[in-house]
Specification:
Elements lengths: L1 H25 L11 H10 L4 E3 L9 H13 L4 E5 L11 H12 L3 E6 L5 E6 L1 E3 L5 E2 L7 H15 L4 E3 L11 H36 L1
Parallel strand pairs: 1-2, 2-3
Antiparallel strand pairs: 3-4, 4-6, 5-7
Helix pairs in contact: 1-6, 2-4, 3-5
Amino acid sequence: MRRRLVGLLITLVCAAAGGAVAWWLAAPTVTPDPPLAERARAAAAVLADTHVYVDPSVEDLFTEQELGRLDAAAAASDPQVFLVVWPNSRQAGYDSPADVLHQIGALTDRPGLYIEVSPDDDVYSTDVGITAEYFSVYGALDGAWTSAAETARLLEEIAENDGREYTLGEDTGSDYWGGAGETIAAGLVIGGFSGIGAGLLGLVGWALARRRKAAA
């Protein structure tokens, strides 16, 4: 009887430990939100009523006609598109374009595709406030940068984005396991089987030790 109780205790302890380890491995890493960038506030204030923000330092980058075409296309697209035009800066207060684009989207509360455009640099996009089929705008223009070439490229990307299937709200669950509920279930299953196996091994080892002690 005592042997069974000890074995059961070992199995339960190992199962709990295995479940904890499995949960740690399966759950997404939680990182603190980056501090709000000041340039994000400036962009959000403009994008609350329009679809194109141009930083004052590059206000002559595009012509008024080009900006008008981009704004009209971005507004007509479904999901909507929001363009952020500014120079790339390593001292802007954020690690990646995705961080600041999500900050802007959170401030405007306008879901859609957010695109960062910097002269002579890679264009970057991310979905904000929606869960949609995969779409990405990334990379620099081939050859010399011109506003006409960039406008044409952006208009093509906006047209390709139009008609994507999406739902409002972002999926914050674990992509690997299929969601938060699936992550919990996977952790419990993995932990349970791991714990049972470890418990059986512990029980066999304990029994062998008892047998050797009795034979001595």
